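tokens incoming
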């Protein structure tokens, strides 16, 4: 007997609603999602600039349109009218295809994200979701991982060293943080008993997975920031090191496509977090008890996008607060912290799930749960053993006297080098051909 139900074993009440729509409903849904993402991108750019401006005591965009809302549209028109430059050393075919490869998967991922329940859509009863499948979450992860090839190929095809380094950094980030992200979602699959997004939302009718699976939620939030190349994990761009990273050689509409892909991915990972951990389109607690129609009609769109904007504000907040990490720190966080913790937590959740589903095991569940908690604490503690130890070899301090005017310029001794100078030792300064020697007491006078 299977201890954990799979999507194939569940009643097909949620999935049966899909695949029955006429072609015009499917087309209108697709256009609806496309328009939402484009308008959402324009708003997110304005929102980020306004929030960061407030954090830095500036005004931000406030000229074009009410409250500066049309500033993003003006920037898009400006990019479209700029000169399109292709470097001579670039592989033209790949150089042109890379932005398209980056932006198309960002749109496709939204096909399986539930935005609301069944509604009356121009006289036809249909769910507010383009489609769904038993492995919808795996579909989202697979499509999202394709988008990284656009960044890698864009950096490689530019014929620039800086762009190539940015593309290589992106591929390393994908390997590191998609592993942790995937492991964080395993606990959700175990508790929901399905990989269908609509069924995962339905499984959170009593309690959100973000609370009962808090470690998975925290790991996913960290991993989604690394996946979208956002500060403090924006190592592929790193303006101070790589000029602009993988898109250094891009201009005009091709650069705009990369920009569009970044902000759509920002909304995508926020929507996935809302769906898997915050109950999706369902109204927050208490609202449904006061208002019976909170989860009916088109009102769930309000709850869904409100939850999603919480994560978008988190992205902006982190960008305005934290400095960029070093690359070795970034890789160590992914491989030495997130992945081991994800593995330990997945094993613990699977064990607890088996205990809760197996009623006739004859073992006291409380003891097993306590043992698992102790195992988790020990696992996390062992990860940080030796963090404070300095395994490097001690630096040998040279006992030779320091030559203050070696090379003709006054050079102070290094903190760890040279003999300790006494207060009465004469100080030497060199200026051109004349050397002046004075004691410390004379200098004090």
């Amino acid at each position: 007997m299977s201890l954990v139900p799979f999507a194939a074993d569940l009643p097909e009440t949620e999935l049966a609603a899909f695949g029955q729509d006429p072609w015009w409903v499917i087309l209108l849904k697709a256009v609806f999602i496309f328009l939402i993402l484009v308008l959402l991108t324009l708003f997110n750019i304005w929102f980020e600039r306004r929030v960061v401006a407030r954090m830095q005591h500036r005004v931000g965009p406030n000229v074009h349109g009410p409250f500066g809302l049309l500033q993003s549209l003006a920037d898009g028109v400006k990019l479209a009218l700029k000169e399109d430059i292709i470097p001579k050393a670039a592989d033209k075919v790949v150089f042109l295809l890379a932005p398209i490869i980056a932006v198309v998967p960002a749109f496709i991922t939204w096909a399986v994200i539930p935005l609301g329940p069944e509604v009356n859509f121009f006289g036809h009863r249909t769910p507010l979701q383009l489609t769904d499948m038993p492995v919808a979450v795996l579909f989202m992860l697979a499509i999202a991982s394709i988008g990284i090839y656009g960044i890698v190929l864009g950096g490689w095809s530019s014929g620039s060293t800086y762009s190539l380094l940015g593309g290589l950094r992106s591929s390393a980030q994908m390997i590191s943080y998609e592993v942790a992200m995937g492991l964080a979602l395993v606990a959700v699959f175990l508790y929901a008993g399905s990989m269908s997004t609509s069924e995962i939302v339905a499984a959170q009718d009593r309690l959100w997975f973000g609370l009962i699976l808090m470690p998975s939620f925290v790991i996913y939030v960290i991993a989604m920031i690394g996946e979208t190349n956002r500060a403090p994990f924006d190592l592929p761009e790193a303006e101070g090191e790589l000029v602009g990273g993988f898109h250094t050689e891009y201009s005009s509409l091709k650069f705009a496509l990369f920009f569009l892909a970044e902000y759509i991915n920002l909304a995508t990972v926020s929507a996935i977090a809302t769906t898997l951990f915050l109950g999706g389109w369902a109204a927050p607690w208490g609202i449904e008890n006061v208002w019976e129609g909170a989860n009916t009609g088109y009102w769930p769109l309000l709850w869904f996008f409100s939850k999603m904007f919480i994560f978008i504000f988190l992205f902006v907040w982190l960008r305005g607060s934290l400095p960029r990490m070093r690359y070795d720190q970034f890789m160590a966080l992914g491989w030495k912290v997130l992945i081991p913790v994800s593995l330990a937590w997945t094993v613990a959740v699977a064990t607890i799930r088996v205990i809760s589903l197996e009623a006739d095991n004859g073992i006291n569940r409380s003891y097993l749960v306590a043992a698992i908690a102790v195992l988790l604490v020990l696992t996390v503690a062992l990860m940080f053993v030796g963090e404070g130890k300095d395994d490097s070899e001690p630096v040998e301090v040279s006992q030779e006297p320091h030559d203050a005017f070696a090379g003709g310029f006054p050079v102070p001794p290094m903190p760890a080098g040279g003999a300790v100078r006494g207060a009465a030792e004469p100080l030497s300064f060199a200026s051109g051909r004349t050397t002046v020697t004075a004691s410390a007491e004379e200098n004090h006078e």
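note: The radius of gyration is 28 Å.
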